[in-house]
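Lab notes, practical 5.
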Amino acid sequence: MKIFKRTKEKKDAKIAAGIKSLTDKLKIKDKIAKANQWADKHKKKVSLITIGTLMLSLIIGSWLTLTATYNEADMMSGLSDVKPAFDGIRRIQRLKSMQVDQTVELTNKGQQLKHELDSLVRLPVKSHQDSLDIMVKYRQLELVVKYLDNKQ
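Output from the prediction step:
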């Protein structure tokens, strides 16, 4: 990282030296000092020039705005490029809500299976069909739990 800092410092030093040599050649410091002296002596003129320049730019800007012809189709053409992006966002939101709904549905199904499995396991005497139901529901519950664990 020190290498990058050194090269940046060298570049900054070169830029500063270039600016200094340019200002020395053009004698900008002297010109700025003379302009500041004149401005200190003629405060009212400086204020009038500043306000006049601002008013002129306001008038020209307003005139350009009012006289410009805008085609509404041209102004709306940029918005048509945005439509696919919004469609994509809506599609993503729809898919997310479907996924949330499926997760809630699976959670409810898992709770229902657990309740049914608990009630089958509590039976004191189980028939062959009860044993098969326990095995099937247990396998279904395992699949639901595995799916929900992978989702998270």
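Observations recorded by the TA: The first helix runs from residue 2 to 26. The CA atoms of residues 28 and 34 lie 10 Å apart.
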